[in-house]
Amino acid sequence: MRPKLPEHEKRTELVKLLLTKEEKLRLDSLVRTGRFGCRSDYLRFAIFRRSNIKTVLFDQETKELLQKTDWELNRIGVNLNQLSKRINSFTGYNVGDNDRQLLGQAFDRMTQCLAFLQKHLR
What is the rounded CA–CA span in Å between residue 74 and residue 119? Predict the structure, then answer.
């Protein structure tokens, strides 16, 4: 049996919403994919969580810098994956000077990217 809710948590107000058949099917699909118990839970989540979302707008220069940063981070990830594969494909592999240099470069670039993002996203 469901536990009794305190008076201040009880939902007593009813709101009606008219939808087309297609809209209702889409709503039901969103409820299922979001793993919500019912339409009401999904709608409350969609309405009240949306007000907590922060929107950040960038000028063209900042947008280009963010795209470049994204590209750099992707490149770093590729390098790290190559290094990981190399290290894991040999038993007893010792990290050499080239690997240390590559890891240092990756760390430096990631630090630069983080500093840039922190500067522009505050």
Answer: 20
Query: What are the CA-CA distances from residue 115 to residues 18, 41, 66, 81, 109 (Å)?
Result: 49, 39, 12, 23, 10
Q: Does residue 21 surpass a pLDDT of 90?
A: yes
| pTM for the full predicted model | 0.40
Which tokens in the block code for residue 3? 């536990």
Among 37, 44, 38, CA closest to 15: 44
| Per-residue 3-state assignment (H helix, E strand, C coil) for the chain | CCCCCCHHHCCCCCCCCCCCHHHHHHHHHHHHHCCCCCHHHHHHHHHHHHCCCCCCCCCHHHHHHHHHHHHHHHHHHHHHHHHHHHHHCCCCCCCCHHHHHHHHHHHHHHHHHHHHHHHHHC
Segment 23-45, tens digit of pLDDT = 999 999 888 888 788 898 889 88
